[in-house]
Structures are given as C-alpha cells and as structure tokens.
Amino acid sequence: MTQELEAIAGVARDVIACELCPRLRAYCAEVARVKRKAYEGEEYWGRPVPGFGDPAAWLLIVGLAPGAHGANRTGRMFTGDRSGEWLYEELFRQGLASAPRSRARDDGLILTGVYIAAAGRCAPPDNKPTLEELDHCRGYLVREMAALAEARVKLALGRIAFDAILKARGELGLPALRPLPKFGHGARAVLPEGGFLLSSYHPSQQNTSTGKLTLPMWRAVFDQARDLGRP
Fold it and tell me: What is the dihedral of CA 51, 53, 56, 61, to 10 degrees?
C-alpha cells in the first residue's frame, strides 16, 4: 500500500502545481479573487484540484472538472456544489463514505473503496474545457489509473469523463475495446484486462433539476457498480 500512497501523493502534488493551461489558471484565479457573494468570507482554493479517496479503491469515479464555486472553492473533488451533494450522499448510502456530506478539505471525511478523479483539474469557463486542455490533464488520470491497481470498476460521470477513461487506457497500453463502447446512462462494458467500465449522466444541476437524471437512475448505477466490483 505504501507504493500506491506514494504514487497518488505524487500525482496530487503535480496537479496542484500544474501551470499547463494559462486560460484555466487565469480563470480560476479570477473566480477566487472575485468570489460569489454567498462565499465572500471564504478563502477560495483557486488552484488545480487533485483526486481524492482510497488508494486501495475498487471503484474509480471520473467526473468532468471542478466547479468554479464548488471544488475550485473548496479544493476537493465534487465538494461545495449540488453535484457533490448527489455523489457523497450515494457514496454514504453504499458504505463508501464516512459521512453523507463533503464540506471542505479538512472536514475529516474518509472514503473507503472509492477514489474520485476528473478529466480536467481546473474549473473551466462555462464548464467547457478545450480538447487541448483535456489533453494536458489526461496524464494525471493515466498515472492515477496505473496506481489504482485494485480499481476493477471505472465509472464515468458524463461523456467527457467517458472519453477520458478510454483515452487513458490507450496511453497505458491496455487492449483496445472492440467494438468501441458508447456512452449512455447505465451502460456497461467488459474490460479485457479485467473489470468493467460503467457510465452515468453527470449529476449536474441541469440534469437533476430537469429529470434527465433521477435519484432511482443514479442509485441504480452505483448498485450495479457494487454488484460488479465490490470485494
């Protein structure tokens, strides 16, 4: 386990120090400077956000990117916005989180059996990173996937995360998937190296408030992940 811890810690250090995308660094810093009125008394993180979770995870969750006033504020993946409320409540229901809320980097929350990453590590304007920016970030996901040797289930939250996992597999030299799986809520693909790739609609407020993603749909994906991969 020491080796996995060191590898994950190394990725986190490199993510936090990353300056590869000037547009994103400028945007995150500006959001942290101006702040949203509801959080004007808080100090924003304002930097690239590292992954969070258990180095011995059996489940790897990959999202899109930090929210401008969510993870860009708190410094922890899926923390500080409505998407995170959906995710951590479900992880708690599944027995994978020590509490149903993730509030801040120092709140003592512990994840067991799950690790949370993202296709992009900086909050992008309008939640739309460019392909070049995603390419710059993918090396961090590649390194995390290499370190998380026990993660038999990869769960992509949204199409961009789905594509990021597929591209990271290619960079790791893993066998190509034939036929190439398509993104869809609740879709499942068997990975030739062992394990499964699952996909879900992202729990963005746009999806949850319109009913595109309902709570039963969301829970069903995690129940499927549990049945496929939990030790």
Answer: -70
